[in-house]
Amino acid sequence: MEWYHYVIFGLVAIGTFVLGMVLGFQNRMKILVKQSEIALKKKEHEIDGLKAEADSIREQASGLMRQAQEEKSRAEQLIAQAQKAEVQAEASKQKKILEAKEKFHTLKTEHEQAMLERNAKAEANDAKLKQRDLALNQRKEELQKKQKELEIAKQKQEKLNAKLEEQSELMDKKQEELEKMHKQHIEKLEQIAGISAEQARDELVESLREDAKSKAMEFITETIEEAKLTATKEAKKVVVQTIQRVATETAIENSVTVFHIESDEIKGRIIGREGRNIRALEAATGIEIIVDDTPEAIILSGFDPVRREVARLALHQLVTDGRIHPARIEEVVIKMRKQIEEEIMEVGKRTCIDLGVHGLHSDLVRLVGKMKYRSSYGQNLLQHSREVANLSATMAAELGLNPKLAKRAGLLHDIGKVPDDQPEVPHAILGMQLAEKYKEKPEVCNAIGAHHDEVEMTTLYSPIIQVCDAISGARPGARREIAESYIKRLKDLESLALGYPGVTNSYAIQAGRELRVIVSSDKITDTQAESLSYDIAQKIQTEMTYPGQVKVTVIRETRAVNFAR
Question: Nearest 5°: CA angle at 193, between 190 and 194?
Fold first, then answer.
């Protein structure tokens, strides 16, 4: 190889080395430039953060300056208000000082006037005292005069006593003389009459015995009347107090319910094709449905009020719904029957709560609710039982007994009228059996069974329930009486009185509450008239049933008739 080849190779190597060095330097320079840029960016970010902090500090400083200015203005306002308040306080202080001075002057003048009035009153009292002293002195002088007069009167009385003693001695002597003369007269009378004094005494006793018998009858009658008046007065007092404290309600149930409809077109739908709807309704409810010419009304007739109410509610539901066919009728009647049973229980519970009767068996509560749909002589049975319960509680309280027990017995006394089955037993006995079945107290059971005298009364609650039952049923408007039984009772009263000897006529007046008996004056004396009145009253009391009481009046009339011609 030639030398220049070595030179070329050497130059190439040197150039390659230099080129590598240059490239490495460039790379280092790029890295430094990037690092410097990154550092510059960091510095810029730091500068931006410092600028933001400086801005926030400036804003805070400006806010503090504003707050300081506001505080300064507020302080100035407060100072101004304080100055004003000070001025007002000074003014009010002066005003109050003036008012206090005025009040002081007024009080001073009032005190002076009061002192003047007191002085005047004291002077007047002194004058009155002086007058009283003068009057007392005058009375003292009068008393001294009266004492002197009394001493004189005592001396006169002593003289009169001495004279009376002398006269009494004379009277004793005259009495002895009179006794001697009386014996002589008796002996002469025995000689003249021909009988002894003992025989005359016997005849006198016999004559007096008849008078004594008539007087004894009069005395017995007066005693009985006085006892009746006293007992009646006390009984009326208790009854009146009981009635005054208990308010009653009147409710009369009939055997017919009128169902009102909007138009007569609905009658045809209720009857149905060939009467199938009305037959289905009567069969389901057991109530006779009368569709006649009465405008906008359908009559539901039946003795059982519960069934009538079921029929009425079922009709109302069917007419409102509009779908009337036998299947729908049976469905609605069953639904209404369940609704009535729920209402019966609800009424029973509400009645027990209203009256404060707790702890009743659920079957007894149901029977109490069932009484809403029963009536007795036109009187709603539930209202009647509520009245009897309230009256009994009030009367028991008046007599010092347990009012809660009396109220319980009064509420349950007629449950024998609403049993689920119908045994052939009086309702009082059936009610007592039901009460015993459901573990009621013996006092309650006896009061239920004895309120119509079916069993013997063993407690004081029994007559209370009986009396209150009569009060509730006998008050005006409570019950309706059938005309036939009313007329029969009047005829029985009159015929009972006509059965006695000496009775010419008898008249039942005042709706059977008074019986007037006319007797013959030839056959009946005044004394016998008294006993006849008593006997008739006792017989009516034992043999007849009647509301309230019957007054028996026996009239004996004597007439003397003459003619002047």
Answer: 75
Which amino acid is present at 488? K
Q: Estimate the crossing angle of helix 326-355 against helix 381-398, to 10 degrees.
A: 10
Q: Extract the tokens encoding 488.
A: 């029969």
Check residue 247 and give its pLDDT: 43
User: 564 phi and psi, to 5 degrees?
Assistant: -100, 125
Say how far apart CA 151 and CA 418 lie, in whole Å. 92
Contact 479, 407 (CB under 8 A): no
Residue 136: pLDDT above 60? yes
User: Is beta strand 514-519 parallel, antiparallel or unpaired with respect to 551-556?
Assistant: parallel
Which stretches within 194-286 are classed as H helix? Answer: 197-245, 265-271, 276-285
Residue 358 phi/psi, 5° resolution? -115, 160
Nearest to 271 by CA among 308, 325, 320, 322: 325
Q: For residues 520 and 555, is the Cβ–Cβ distance under 8 A?
A: no
Q: How many CB atoms lie within 10 A of CB 284?
A: 20
List, in sequence order, every residue forming a beta bridge with 517; answer none if it has no partner: 506, 554
What is the per-residue pLDDT across 445-501, written as a single tens digit (0 to 9) for each? 999 888 887 888 888 888 888 888 887 765 544 444 455 666 777 888 888 888 888
Task: Give the tens place of pLDDT for each residue, 310-355.
Answer: 888 888 888 887 777 878 888 888 888 888 888 888 888 898 888 8
The pTM (predicted TM-score) of the whole model is: 0.43
Q: Contact, 454 vs 426, CB < 8 A?
A: yes
Crossing angle of the two packed helices 403-412 and 362-370, in degrees rounded to 10: 60
Q: What angle do CA 40, 45, 49 make, to 5 degrees?
A: 145
CB 396 within 8 A of CB 403: yes
426 φ, ψ (degrees, to nearest 5):
-55, 145
The owner of tokens 């001695």 is 169
Q: In this model, does residue 226 exceed pLDDT 80?
A: no
The DSSP symbol for 417 reads: G
H or E stretch at 152: helix 3-193
Using the predicted structure, report yes or no on whether residue 546 has a pLDDT greater than 70. Answer: no
Overall average pLDDT of the 502-506 stretch: 88
421-433 residue pLDDT tens: 766 788 888 889 8
Q: Cβ contacts of residue 530 below 8 Å, gap of 6+?
A: 217, 218, 221, 554
Identify which of 43, 458, 12 has the alpha carbon closest to the alpha carbon of residue 449.
458
Distance from C-alpha of 485 to C-alpha of 261, rounded to nearest angstrom: 38
Whose tokens are 């002195």? That residue is 137
φ and ψ at residue 220, rounded to 5 degrees: -65, -45
Closest CA to 467 of 394, 525, 381, 538: 394
